[in-house]
Amino acid sequence: MTNMSKIRTVLIDDEPLALDVLEGLLMSFPQIEIVGKFNNPSEAIPALSSLNPAVVFTDIQMPGQTGLDFIQSQYPAPFAVIFTTAHPNFAADAFEYEALDYLLKPISPERLGKAIKRLEEYLEYRNNTTEVASTIEDYVYVKVDGEHQKILFKDIYFIEAFADYVKIWISPNKRIVTLQTMRNMEAGLPQSNFVRVHRSFIIAIDKIKSIQNNAIILEGDIEVPIGKNYKEPISNLLSKKRF
Predict the structure, then answer these.
(1) CB under 8 Å to 166, separation ≥6 — which residues?
(2) At 106, is the secondary structure helix, strand, or coil?
(3) How deeply is 62 buried, as exposed, middle or buried, from its count of CB atoms within 10 A (0-12, 13-18, 19+)?
(4) Which of 133, 151, 170, 240 is deepest in the core (most CB within 10 A)?
(5) Intrachain domains 7-128 and 138-241 with the same fold
(6) CA distance 112 to 38
(7) Are 118 and 125 in contact (CB under 8 A)?
(8) Is the peptide bond before 41 cis (omega within 30 degrees of 0)?
(9) Model confidence at 170, in pLDDT bands (50, 70, 90)?
(10) How many C-beta atoms lie closer than 10 Å to residue 148's C-beta?
C-alpha cells in the first residue's frame, strides 16, 4: 500500500479453533491489525461502527445468522468482505454481494497471501478513486494493466460487474476492464450523471433512450435490465425529468 497504515480487520467464525488458526495465519502479515474477533455476526454487527474495519473475514455456515445473511444485511458495506469456509458451493452467492475473495478451508499461507495482496490493491484503488472523484468533476482514473487510465464521464455508457472486476463501456462495442467493485465505482461517480439500476449495472443518465418496465435502452440500442431492488431510483429519475 502507499502508506504504512494498518488494515483494520475483524474475524467472524463460530468455531474458536478456526478463529485462532486464521488469527495465527494473519499474524504473518504486519500490515494486518485484528481489532475484533466474534463467534457470530449478531455479536459483530453492533461493534462494527466503533471498530471501523477495512475488512471482515467471515465464515458462512454458522448457527443463527450465516455469513451470507451478514453480508446481505450490511450491503452495500463500507468494508471489504472475505469469506473463509469449507463449502465451495456458496461462492456464486458470495460474489453476487461483491465479496472481495472466497477462501476454502484449510487456508494455506500462500492463498491467504494472494487474498491480502488483492485486499491491498482494492483499498489503495478505493482510496485513489474517492480522492480523484472528490476533486475532479468530469473524469476519473482507473487502473488498467499497471497504468492509471483517464476516462471522461461523458464517454461512459454503462458499467457492468464482471466477477472481481468491472467493465466500463465507453461505446457500444468498446470497454475497459479494471479491478474494482461496483460499490466503489458507484461512490466515485457523480450522482447527477449516473444511476445504479441493477446489482450488476450502473448507467449514464444522458445515454438513456427509453425506459421500459424491466429494462432501460441506451444509445446504440443497448438493453440493460432493471433490478427489482432498483426500481425506486428509476422512478425518482422519471419524476424529475418528465413533463
Answers:
(1) 159, 160, 177, 178, 180, 181, 182, 185
(2) coil
(3) buried
(4) 133
(5) no
(6) 20
(7) no
(8) no
(9) very high
(10) 13
More confident residue, 216 or 77: 216
243 burial class (0-12, 13-18, 19+ CB within 10 angstroms)?
A: exposed
Residue 124 DSSP symbol = H
**pLDDT tens profile 95-147:** 777 788 999 999 999 999 999 998 998 887 666 554 444 445 688 888 888 78
Mean pLDDT of 55-68: 94
Q: Kindly tell me if the per-residue pLDDT of 165 is higher than 50.
A: yes
Query: From CA 206, how far away is CA 209, in angstroms rounded?
Result: 8
Q: What is the pLDDT of residue 145?
A: 81
Domain ranges within the chain, ordered by starting residue: 7-128, 138-241
CATH number of the domain at 7-128, out of 1.20.1730.10, 3.30.360.10, 3.40.50.2300, 3.40.50.300? 3.40.50.2300
Report the candidate in 100, 33, 97 with the shortest Cα–Cα distance to residue 70. 97
Nearby residues of 178 by Cβ (< 8 Å), 6 or more positions away: 142, 143, 144, 165, 166, 168
Q: Do residues 132 and 153 touch, judged by C-beta distance below 8 A?
A: no
Q: Which CATH superfamily is domain 138-241 in?
A: LytTr DNA-binding domain (2.40.50.1020)
In single-letter form, the type of residue at position 144 comes to V
Q: Which residue bears the cell 452495500?
A: 76
Per-residue model confidence (pLDDT) at position 3: 47
CA atoms within 13 A on the CB side of 127: 12
